[in-house]
Every structure is written in C-alpha cells, then in structure tokens.
Amino acid sequence: MSTATIIDGKAFAESLRTRVGHVAADFTAKAGRKAGLAVVLVGEDPASQVYVRNKGKQTLACGMESFEHKLPADTAEADLLAVVAQLNADPAVDGILVQLPLPAHMDEAKVIATINPDKDVDGFHVVNVGRLATGLPGFVPCTPLGCVMLLKDKLGSLSGLNAVVIGRSNIVGKPMAQLLIAESCTVTVAHSRTKDLPEVVRHADIVVAAVGRPEMVKGDWLKPGATVIDVGINRVPGVEEGKTKLVGDVDFGSASEVAGAITPVPGGVGPMTIAVLLRNTIVAAHRNMGLALDEGVL
Ligand SMILES: Nc1nc(=O)c2c([nH]1)NC[C@@H]1CN(c3ccc(C(=O)N[C@@H](CCC(=O)O)C(=O)O)cc3)C=[N+]21
C-alpha cells in the first residue's frame, strides 16, 4: 500500500514556466528585445539531442529567444572555445549552456571556465560555485535549485531538518549540500565509500538521491515520513522485450510505503531542471541589462 504523497514536479515546473513567461514578457517590453538562451551541443548522443530539443521548445514557449549550436563530435576544443567566446560577446545571448558530457578529447573544466560567469545559467563556473559557497548572488545549478524549490513547497521551512545527500558530484551533490546548508539543514553527504549507508539514511528527514544507480535506495532504509527527492534518471530494460523504461535512484515501490512524500521518475526532478534553466536565464537577462527584478516572484 502506498502512503506517501507524490510530489508532482511536472506540475510545479509548468507553473514555474508560466511565471517565467510573465517575467519574460515584461523584460521584452522594457528591454526592447527578447531574453536569449544559447545551447551548445557537441556530438550526436540521442538522449542529449532530446533534452536540447525540449529546452529549445520550452524557451520559445516562455517568450524567449533560443539559439542552438550543434557541432560534430570531432570538433576541435579550440573551435568550441571560439563558439563560447562568440556567445559571450553576443548582446542577444543572456544565458549559455554547453551540454555535458563533452566528448572525451575535450577538457570540460576549460570549456566551462571560458563561459562568462554572468551568462553561466548552469551555475557550473568556479566563480558561481564560489558565490554559492559564500552566499553571494550568482547562478545556482538548475537540478539542485529545483529540488530545493520542491522541498520548500512541500515542507515550508527546512530549518533544523536532517538532510542526507547521496552523491558528491559537482553538478548535483555538492551544490545540493550548499543549498541545504543555506536553508539551515544539518547536512550529511554520503557517497560510494560511505559505511553503512542505510543506517545514515535512517536519520534523514530529507533524502536526496543523486548517485546514478537504479533503484538503490530501499524503503526499509527510510525514517517513516521522510521526504524523498529522487534525482536519478536511469534507463533500464522494461517489462516488454526490447523496450526500456526510466527509473530513479530510489526503489519507488518500497520507498513510497514508508516516505511521507516522494518525487516520481519521470515527472519529478527532471522537468524542474529545465524550468529552473529558464528561470536562471530570465534572471541573467535582467541582471546583465541592469534591470530590476523581484526574484521572489519566480
Ligand atoms: N550543461 C548541462 N546542463 C544540464 O542541465 C544537463 C546537461 N548538461 N546534460 C544532461 C543533463 C540531463 N538533464 C535533464 C534535463 C531534463 C530531464 C527531464 O525532463 N526528464 C524527464 C523525462 C525525460 C525522458 O523521458 O527522457 C522526467 O524526468 O520526467 C532529464 C535530464 C539536464 N542535463
């Protein structure tokens, strides 16, 4: 029997995109041009192509301009850096996203370091990482920011809650921990070397699973009533021969019998990631044009 409330990330993302759309219309009226997001994709990875197409469609639907740059997989690193430099200099481009992962012959850190931090709507540049760590305004990575929005919507204040983040990546785990610290949670970051992970998770009021291991977190690890945020997007063989399905890092069946609230996969964190990207882009547009914006409306 399932007892947990399902956290509807898809619906929350839709309402966030509506708010972004209103702010974007206001920006267009004030600036005399639309806000613009540039997405750079290197290579032909089918999943990445789907994400980039969805980002482009949703950007246009919010009343912003979308610029797509698709480069072949064998593009020289210097040529990618030149594209980024051109986007840095382009006044029509407010936000730049270089889709990761990049092909193996490229140095991701070097590419990210080339993006103007004030157009870095992914929040991956070390300047934005440092701003987040020290509490300065900057750009926060989309996936963890989306997770915190869902948590605050569900729980109100997070102050004093025990949060366990499983995963220590630069893209999710580490910025997630920073955001939860800023919300006055007591934060534990667990990872592949953590001893007795179920015992660590048992103390958590909030569990954020971002490890990339299908259905790893089981219901009997959870404190009853815990809020579970599943960041995993794992494509696994489906019930039907030859078909695949998406599952998270949490075993939804057992976890939803113990948790108080839980995000599903798909329809949870994933849609929030793109909606927050659009949010960050309209924020970047205002900041870079010197226009005031009450970010609380987003
Ligand atoms: N520079 C950069 N920034 C990113 O933000 C970035 C990236 N690179 N590389 C790839 C990952 C992945 N990512 C997702 C976005 C939306 C869904 C999403 O909407 N998922 C749907 C399901 C989609 C499906 O059916 O495949 C859902 O969970 O409901 C998933 C994954 C952003 N990424």
Write up what this structure looks like.
This protein has 298 residues and is an alpha/beta fold. It has two domains: 31-116, 3-Layer(aba) Sandwich (Rossmann fold); 142-271, Rossmann fold (3-Layer(aba) Sandwich). It has ten helices and eleven strands. Residues 51, 97-100, 122, 142, 233, 246, 265-267, 270-271, 273-274 line the site of 5,10-Methenyltetrahydrofolate.
The gist of it:
By secondary structure, the chain is α/β, with parallel strands linked by helices. It has helices at 9-31, 46-61, 77-89, 108-114, 126-134, 142-155, 173-182, 197-201, 252-255, 269-289; strands at 5-6, 36-42, 65-71, 95-98, 162-166, 186-190, 206-209, 227-230, 234-237, 244-247, 261-262.
Main attributes?
alpha/beta, binds 5,10-Methenyltetrahydrofolate, six-stranded parallel β-sheet, 2 domains, Rossmann fold, three-stranded parallel β-sheet, 298 residues
